[in-house]
TrEMBL record:
<keyword id="KW-0378">Hydrolase</keyword>
<protein>
    <submittedName>
        <fullName>Haloacid dehalogenase, type II</fullName>
    </submittedName>
</protein>
<dbReference type="InterPro" id="IPR023214">
    <property type="entry name" value="HAD_sf"/>
</dbReference>
<dbReference type="InterPro" id="IPR006328">
    <property type="entry name" value="2-HAD"/>
</dbReference>
<dbReference type="InterPro" id="IPR036412">
    <property type="entry name" value="HAD-like_sf"/>
</dbReference>
<comment type="similarity">
    <text>Belongs to the HAD-like hydrolase superfamily. S-2-haloalkanoic acid dehalogenase family.</text>
</comment>
<dbReference type="Pfam" id="PF00702">
    <property type="entry name" value="Hydrolase"/>
</dbReference>
<dbReference type="InterPro" id="IPR051540">
    <property type="entry name" value="S-2-haloacid_dehalogenase"/>
</dbReference>
<dbReference type="InterPro" id="IPR006439">
    <property type="entry name" value="HAD-SF_hydro_IA"/>
</dbReference>
<dbReference type="GO" id="GO:0019120">
    <property type="term" value="F:hydrolase activity, acting on acid halide bonds, in C-halide compounds"/>
</dbReference>
<dbReference type="InterPro" id="IPR023198">
    <property type="entry name" value="PGP-like_dom2"/>
</dbReference>
Amino acid sequence: MAKVVIFDLVGTLFSLETVNRLLEKEGLKGDSWFQESIQTAMAATLAERYLPFRDVVELSLTNLVEIHGLTAVSIPAVMEKLKELQPMAGAVECLKKLKGQKARLAVLTNSGKPAAVALLERSGLATHFEMIVSTDEVEKCKPHPSTYLLAMDRLGAEPEDCWMVAAHGWDIYGAAAAGFHTVWVMNRDRRWPFPGLPPGATISALGELPEVIGTWGK
């Protein structure tokens, strides 16, 4: 069976730098807003009080702006900027090479499907993907096990046929627990942060991925 390569979207295929730079000008360092959003989404999932990820991001930004007194930050402007994220360096060539290897490509994202589709279409990446799966369908956010099972079900694949590619350790951890092969794009963290279930492979950029997938198991 063809290898099924499933990508995380935000932070893996698309860079957060445009939003980070906008917020850094107003005094909010790094991607703390994104980490706050993920923490809130995970807490809501654990409490079985699911919120769409866009709502989570808006809530987290509002909280951080109030906590730090960043009165100059326009939340609507930041939310609009999220629609303009740019692909990571090497993303286009990576996807082309994987397609050349006859891999099946998909996206599994905590973002809403309309937003994910719009981002991929605007960047010209949408044509590379067989399927875009949003965790909205199960009203849980990654790394909940049901999100990875959802992707497998939609793709008609077994865990051993799937490779999860993500820059977030928690995403890799969840995918590994679901039985996926995993490739961690280590463009943020510099050490594996979880007990057990280490990534099957670690790369520093997407450009390294086709070789990893192409030679896996050989």
